[in-house]
Amino acid sequence: MPGAGVLVCSGLRKRYGRRVAVDDVGFEIAAGERYGLLGPNGAGKTTTISMICGLLRRDGGEVSVAGQAVDERATAARAAIGYVPQEIALYPDLTGRENLRFFARLYGLTGRTQDERVDACLELVGLSDRAGERVDKYSGGMQRRLNIAAGLLHDPRLLVLDEPTVGVDPQSRIAILDSIEALGTEGLAVLYTTHYMEEAQRLCDRIGILDERRLVAEGTREELVALVGGEDRVRLSADGDLTALAAALGAVEGITQASAADGRVDLMVLGARRALPRILEAATRAGASVSGVEVVEPDLEAVFLHLTGKALRD
Amino acid sequence: MRIALVIAAKDLRQRLRDRSALVVGVAAPLMLALIISAALGGTGFNSFHATYALYDGDHGPVARSFTAIFRTPQLRRAVRIRTVRSAAEAASLTKHDLAAAFVIPPGFSGSVTAGDPAAIRVIRSRADLIGGQVAVDIAGAFAARVEGSQLAVRSALAAGAPASHADALVARATSAPPVVTLADTAAGGRQLQPASYFGPAMAIFFLFFTVGLGARSLLAERRQATLARLQAAPISARAVLGGKAIASFVLGFTSMLVLVVVSSALLGARWGHPLAVLLLIVAAVLAAMGITTLVVTAAKTEEQAGGYSSAVGVVLALLGGNFIPISSAPAVLRRLTLLTPNGWALRGFTDLGTGARASAIVPSIVALAVFAAVTGGVSVARANRVVRAQ
Fold first, then answer.
1. pLDDT tens column, A278-306
2. At which of A204, A225, A246 does a domain end?
3. Is the same domain home to A140 and A210?
4. N or C: which end of chain A has fewer CB within 10 A?
């Protein structure tokens, strides 16, 4: 497969019986680039990276990692990948250091090289002083950080992180994001899946938006926001039947998208500030009692709403 | 091979750290073997011991012939006689600690000599059924000899022997040693000790649980998501399965070996020819690995695997004679034993324990190898599906 990227994948397809889990997904990640795969739960993010890492058989498409096609040179391709699963994939009855040593040996690291890499990765995730403790004594956040360290041991060309902040407290989340930012970009390509827009915006150079099994858009944050055009996002907090309110507002001139979720209505609006009186008037006519209005500059959530017609959290 | 050893070393470290291997593989079988051996007595698994009360109200020559039976080499080691002064005392003792009582009524010898009906009364304890039955059998055997001697005496008298010699003829006939005696020994020529039976029996029973720990660790890897890391690593499914198999084998083999040493030292178990014992252990461990892996790979969760393994392990142990000596089971069960690896392994170990030659275990080794090959082949294919990408 041609291509200079560390990861090159195209036409990825996976079916479970008659259900299609991923359909024609493809993207490239260059050396030193952080690529975010953004999408709601069930969009196909984990299935996509499972095919890239060789955990799932593909029903179609091609993958090459560091120039090695995963079908022909599976061992070489896998050796170039550092995989961090969504779950805490560690042995709870072994210490942090024992876990890392074990995974390092699987990648052929031995002797002094192994010790140096283990120490470096423990240092990176801030667990050097707790390395001798059993993992089941660690907090959830510490386990998450060690989970990431285990994927970095062999100095991979491609680091695949599958929603590494799921289920962690805010403080640990910040620590994990700091660790990922501290990785440096010297040749390491990062594939980061998340359904948190802020994480994708903060960490990723380019973002692919995955919805309902397909990649619907990709580009830098700026490129994606440009897709929204002159639209702003307006968020109404209101009481009453919000679904009916969203339907009523969708008919107002200048409103291109309207969706209700989490006790509020999100709107994509052309010229929001001028359109605001019309919006409030229509809401009143629809019998809603508006308690708050927020006008947000276009962001990834707005992009997602614009592309899919629904909020990222749906 | 290097990666398989790395995975095996990690698995063994985990098993030793959580002490499960130590408990299941050594402590539990040793304790059970100790308890069962102690319950069955330490002086001979197949030997019988009983104490009987004896009231001799006759004191005649035939009564003396009866009491002399208990001084014969066959019964002297097994039966102890307590002579009492009355039939009532004899009956009373059977209500407490004696297995049975013999009551020889006055005039017993005279009746026998005269060819009249005579009876030795056997009073059996309700608490010791076997001891009571043996007492009945002893009296029955004596009665048969008396009947035979009466026939002989009548023949002698008919042939012209003086009637005054009848008493002496009867006494001589009833006290003569039996023409045919039974020698109760095991196949190898040595009595099987309880520890020599229950040592291997418990070791084999728990072997299924010990090697099952290794097989179940594959499901634990899946639950912990560490299997995904192994799948993503540049290693083959064969290396993962090889590592699990090595760890299971080491656990099973070590557990059996420790039990051999400890049961020999503490319980006096005899295991027989060391090399043959080692071969038999290897074959038994491989067969147990094949069966447990087959069972575990049929399960979706560790809990399910634990339930399946326990059920299969207990059924195989029951059929294989791990709890109840299969020699005392009905013929159907004795045949079923040979459908289990437990039965074949135990047969090999008991043969060796009774002093049989090493070649006696060849059928057991072959049978266990067949179990290992068939179940192992199927389970490797199934386990491969667990480890490979789906």
1. 888 888 888 888 888 888 777 787 788 77
2. A225
3. yes
4. N
The C-alpha of B231 sits at a distance from chain A's nearest C-alpha, in angstroms, of 6
Q: A72: exposed, middle or buried (C-beta count within 10 Å: 0-12, 13-18, 19+)?
A: exposed
Looking at residue B241, its amino acid is L
| Burial class of B22 by CB neighbour count within 10 A (0 to 12, 13 to 18, 19+) | middle
Q: Is the pTM of this model over 0.80?
A: no
Do B229 and A83 count as a contact with CB atoms less than 8 A apart? yes
Query: What is the number of other CB atoms lying within 10 angstroms of the CB of residue A32?
Result: 14
- Which residue of A55, A103, A162 is the best one to mutate when testing the B interface, meaning the one whose CB has the most B CBs within 10 A? A55
Question: How crowded is residue A292: how many other Cβ atoms within 10 Å of its Cβ?
Answer: 9
Interval A151-160: pLDDT, tens: 989 989 999 9
Helices (H), A38-191: 45-52, 74-79, 96-106, 111-124, 140-152, 170-181
Q: Cα-flanking dihedrals φ and ψ of residue B78, to 5°?
A: -100, -30
Residue A82 lies in a domain: yes
Distance in Å, alpha carbon of A174 to nearest chain B alpha carbon: 24
* A–B CB contacts, 8 A cutoff, strictly below: 69
**A82 & A196 share domain:** yes
CA distance A57 to chain B (A): 6
Interface of B with A in 213-252 (CB under 8 A): 224-226, 228-235
- Give this complex's ipTM: 0.77
Same domain, A219 and A268: no
pLDDT band at B8 (very low <50, low <70, confident <90, very high): very high
Instruction: Using pLDDT thresholds of 50, 70 and 90, give the confidence band for residue B163.
Output: low
Q: Which domains does chain B have, with CATH numbers?
A: 2-43+190-387 (no CATH), 50-175 (3.40.190)
Say whether B389 and A94 touch across the interface (CB within 8 A).
Answer: no
| Domain annotation covers residue A311 | no
Considering only CB atoms, A89 lies closest to which of B228, B389, B390, namely B228
Q: What is the mean pLDDT of residues B261-282?
A: 85
Which chain B residue's Cα is nearest to A54? B232
Q: Are residues A83 and A209 in the same domain?
A: yes
- Are the CB atoms for B97 and B47 separated by under 8 Å? no
Alpha-carbon span B95 to B126, nearest angstrom: 8
Q: Which of B10, B224, B227, B229 to probe by mutation at the A interface, max A CB count within 10 Å?
A: B229
Residue of A nearest to B9 (CA): A102
Please indicate whether, in this complex, the C-beta atoms of A93 and B18 are within 8 angstroms of each other: yes
How many angstroms separate the Cα of A117 from the Cα of each of A132, A149, B10, B64? Answer: 16, 10, 19, 92
- State the Cα–Cα distance between residues A172 and A141, nearest whole angstrom: 5
Q: Are residues A60 and A204 in the same domain?
A: yes
Taking the CA of residue B300 and the nearest CA in chain A, the distance in Å comes to 18
- pLDDT tens-digit readout, B18-32: 777 777 777 777 777
Cα–Cα distance for residue pair B61/A33, rounded to 1 Å: 112
Q: Are residues A13 and A67 in the same domain?
A: yes
Q: Is B359 on the interface with A (CB under 8 A)?
A: no
Strand ranges (DSSP E) for chain B? 50-56, 79-83, 100-104, 121-124
